[in-house]
Amino acid sequence: MSKFALVLVNIKGLGVKTFSYLIPDNMKDIIKVGQLVLVPFGRQGLVKAFVVGFSDYLPENIKAKKINRIVEENPLFSLDYLKLLEWVANYYMCDFVTVINTAIPLKLTEQNSKLEKSVSVTEKTTENLTKRQKEIINLLKEKGKCNLVDFEREAKTTRATIKKLELGGYLKLLDVEIFRNPLEIFSKENLEPLFELNHEQQKVYEGVRKKDNKFPILIHGVTASGKTEVYFKLIKDTIDSGKNVLFLAPEIALASQLTKRLAKKFGINDVAIWHSSISDGERYDVWQKLYKNEIKILAGVRSAVFAPLQNIGLIIIDEEHENAYKQTNPSPRYDARVVARKLAEFHNCKLVLGSATPDIQTYYRALNSGNLFEMLHRFNNAPVAKTTIINMQQYGKAAYRGIISKQLQIATEETLEKGQQVILLINRRGFSTYTQCQACGEVIECEHCSVPMIWHSVDRVLKCHYCGREKSFPSECPNCGSDALHNSGTGTQKIELFVKELFKTARVARIDSDILNKKNAHIELLNKFQKGEIDILIGTQMIAKGLDNPNVTLVGVISADESFNLPDFRASERGFQLLTQVAGRSGRGKYLGKVIFQTYNPDFYAIDSAQRQDFKTFYDTEIAAREEFDYPPFAQVFRLILSCENVFRAEKSAMEIAMRLNEMIDKFGISERLIVLGPTPCVLEKIRNQYRFQIIIKNKMDERGHQFISSFLSKITMPKDIKLIVDVEPTDIL
Ligand code: ADP
Ligand code: ZN
Ligand code: ZN
Fold first, then answer.
1. Is residue 78 part of a domain?
2. For ligand 1, is residue 433 a contact (CB within 6 Å)?
3. What SS3 state is found at 408?
4. For ligand 1, what atom is nearest to the CA of residue 230?
């Protein structure tokens, strides 16, 4: 047995650090990785710490103190778990402690006596309650701690009750529905049965079952094809075989909905939820249950890949194309899909991904490994809304304020007359101004990078933010010779104004990033829209997904071109996903829906295939372009961002790094396979007074390239005032 234990402590002001402690003889046989221990720490006295490793030697001149005692003999995580975190640190090029900090709720190492709450309800607090409320309390008393569950915003009654009961935020009810009917839902006998699968579902289910665990499996199924029901069958099989299931969704709201559905099918005591807004007490509790193998199904958002679920037999990632699976800030900049793949490898289990608009890279890999399953029909064969493309080259002049075409006006009026609702999507991110020909739809792109060039009004040039090339504003369109070249961009507020001018009696509301600053404003507006108190909802990409309002029968996209013209190699993919998703908001109820895309570029492949909801055609064109320009899946992209308050220093340090990297690459003769672009200013050039420059690296030599970059970066030390961010496989390059 080793002499020293490496422990992790979390000290106020110091943060998370590891230290070595002497293992007393009486602990030698019982001490394990993952245990919670008490160690003496300077003036702080005894503090809580986690054992993360062992050694026989100490760095010179360090005198180790003794571990005081073991608080929890049951470890809270395993060695394998630490190995996974270590892998994440290496892959995402950040330090181990940062990953641990993200993965393990380190509040656990602080004074966690407060965490050991239980349900205590005194007679006094129950005095003024209704019969139903008392019923619930009895139930809760009976159950003791029940799995943490979360409740939705509308659940005002529930919340009030909880407050009254002084449950201290520890125990929350699933939602109003359960509140109304707790006994039924909590009881095992009343679980909802799984549906009989239809033919298409059954085929996919059987196909997935037969696959080995080697590669991720993709279920590409149009919305409402019944993917979730297929997942449920797979889940059932997995828990019947004695193993557990991890189920990821992109956002908290979706994860909560899912938890509810899972609880109804599999019983509330076997299901738990994991996301960033659960309290530390809850987290601690779920953490222990997971580690003790008391939970069978864990639903959660991306951070749930780090929850210590044991004995995993299946991992499902729904809506796998969503950006939210990648953490962009702060470090570790991990992608839950990538980590999940590693996790599946550790557990030798299946990873099943699902989406109606899969990530190009996921689709490519699934296709090539024979692990692609498709569900192309809606479950009940409900018709998909019909999409019309309005060519603004032709109709733009007659459009209201040049923006709202006659066709969209008429369709809106008709919809309002029927008392139905309208969604208008404005597809823009305020900062980018690309240049487009209004006669033929051509967008000025960099010939080397195939991304739109961005107009810089200060320097009066077009700039490529990938390679740095510049161009003056062309006098005519390079495609058709017309002089109708135009810098894009009408703000959401202006469009709201125009819509209000046009439809005077309609109740109009707008949701965009301005609104996000006001807490809950966005949710309140969505609720109002849901209740029919808003006729026309105008918004950016935020309104494209999730909304399930059966009374919406018209979706208009003001300018379908905008999202395609961000200077990002994924712009077409994102644009296609957005149009397909937003089109899916129309006609979900008993009325047939309509969709209108306004565009200057009607023949653009992504718009054309979004109109027909034709993923495959979009994919075929997109994958060819990716191959030609060395983008994923044909190269792995790294992004380095250097930022500094001083613009010259930021640029200079970026140039230096690029130069040194290029020198190394030349020395090893791998410049064909490791391609360095830039430095260039980021599209978002200045954030919080920091000037930002980026270097893009395309790696075409897999792990060896990754290692090369990693070792190069590990040798770099930056001056204090300059920050270097490394983003491995970034989701966007803005
Ligand atoms: P997706 O996940 O593909 O968007 P869902 O699984 O949510 O689709 O299914 C859409 C709707 O169809 C849901 O209301 C679901 O309950 C219902 N449904 C799907 N499959 C079946 C089935 N085999 N039997 C009965 N209802 C089903
Ligand atoms: Zn033109
Ligand atoms: Zn370029």
1. yes
2. no
3. helix
4. 6
Tell me the pLDDT of the chain averaged across its residues: 84
Question: Hunting for tokens 């507006």 — which residue is that?
Answer: 525
Same domain for 59 and 125, yes or no, is no
Which token pair is 402? 């040049």
Mean pLDDT of 43-49: 85
Asked if the model's pLDDT at residue 371 lies above 50, the reply is yes
Same domain, 352 and 227: yes
pLDDT tens digits, residue range 199-226? 999 999 999 999 999 999 999 998 888 9
Residues 476 and 518 in one domain: no
What is the domain-level CATH number for residue 230?
3.40.50.300
Beta bridge partners of 299: 247, 273
Tell me the average pLDDT across 493-502: 88
Cα 530 from Cα 124, distance rounded (Å): 39
Pocket mutation for ligand 1, best pick of 379, 545, 547, 581 (most atoms within 8 Å of C-beta): 379
Ligand 1 center from residue 227 Cα (angstroms): 7
Q: Decide whether any atom of ligand 1 lies within 6 Å of the 569 Cβ.
A: no
pLDDT at 119 exceeding the cut of 70: no
In the chain the first and final C-alpha atoms are separated, in Å, by: 52
Strands of the sheet with 552-557, listed across from one edge: 386-391, 594-599, 552-557, 421-425, 536-539, 508-511
The reply to whether 419 and 567 lie within a common domain is yes
Residues 205 and 289 both lie in one domain: yes
Structure confidence by residue, pLDDT tens digits, 251-271: 887 888 888 889 889 988 889
257 lines ligand 1 (CB under 6 A): no
At 428, the pLDDT band (50, 70, 90 cuts) reads low
Give the tens place of pLDDT for each residue, 49-88.
889 889 888 877 778 899 999 988 888 888 888 899 989 9
Residue 453 sits in the same domain as residue 413:
no
* Residue type for position 400: Y
Count of domains observed in the chain: 6
3 state DSSP class of 507: coil
- Check if 197 has its Cβ closer than 6 Å to any atom of ligand 1: yes
Q: Determine if ligand 1 sits within 6 Å of the CB of residue 227.
A: yes
Give yes or no: residues 134 and 96 share one domain: no
- The Cα diameter of the chain in Å comes to 87
Name which residue leads in pLDDT, 139 or 93.
93
Angle formed by the axes of helices 96-103 and 79-91, nearest 10°: 120
Whether residue 530 sits in one domain with residue 445: no
* Structural domain range at position 50: 4-104
Q: Which of 320-324, 399-403, 523-527 has the lowest mean pLDDT?
A: 523-527
Q: Which CATH number fits the domain that encloses residue 97?
A: 3.40.1440.60
The structure's pTM equals 0.83
Nearest of 207, 239, 235, 242 to residue 221 by alpha carbon: 207
CA of 449 relative to ligand 3 center, distance in Å: 4
| Ligand 3 centroid to residue 353 C-alpha, Å | 33
Tell me if 186 is assigned to some domain.
Answer: no
